[in-house]
Amino acid sequence: MTAMLRNVNRVFLGLVGLVLLVLGGSVLAVGLGAPAPSWWIHDSRHDVLLGEAERTRWRDSGWWWPVVIAALAVLLLLALWWLVAVLRRRRLAEVLVDTGDGEGALVRGRALEQVLTQEAERIDGVDRSRAHLTGRRTAPEAHVRLALEPHVDPGTALTDFTTGALHHARTSAGLASLPAEVRLRAVKHGAERVS
């Protein structure tokens, strides 16, 4: 998840949680005997959530219950989709390194990402870089973003990255291959003054 989506997700969850907390707490308070405000939908602790008139208002309309069930099913599917999207781990937590003795060792995925990032930033003309690993711990994939300075040839920078940082990461982790998706973009710069 990007930082913006993560923040939107947190704000949305916070607002939904706050609304549910206020509604649930007020229903509980009225149910325990607290006086209800005049504008509240329930009058006393013996009031029901849906009265007889509210439940039977559209009973004779054939469209009502299928629409309600379809809307609730759509809401349930959206909630399940959101839950799976939030719980799915997009980053690789660890990489399995073959030590040659049949055992193996685990390297933290973030450590390998930091090494890739730092070594990529040492390449001539790379202003910033960001790397993250996905896939399985026995077959990781690298996703790298390189911000290039205006004077750099993108082909040269890509070749330097693949033969340098990416090759070192692959050999140090003992991987047969380390597929990578590299996205290049130029750093914005101001106009230079010519005199």
Task: Explain what you see.
The chain has 195 residues and is α+β, with helices and mostly antiparallel strands. It contains five helices and five strands, in the order H-H-H-E-E-H-E-E-H-E. It has a three-stranded mixed β-sheet, with helices on one face. The chain has a two-stranded antiparallel ribbon with strand order 1-2. Helix 4 packs antiparallel against helix 5. It is elongated and about 75 Å long. It starts with a helix and ends in a 9-residue tail after the last strand.
Q: What is the makeup of the main sheet?
A: 3 strands, mixed
Q: If strands are numbered along the chain, what order do they take across the biggest sheet? A: 3-4-5
What's the helix count? 5
Order of helices and strands: HHHEEHEEHE
Distance between the termini: 46 Å
Strand content: 15-25%
Low-confidence segments, given as residue ranges, are none
By secondary-structure content and strand pairing, the structural class works out as alpha+beta
Counted beta strands: 5
Q: Radius of gyration over alpha carbons? A: 28 Å
Molecular shape: elongated
Helix percent reads 40-55%
Name the average pLDDT: 83
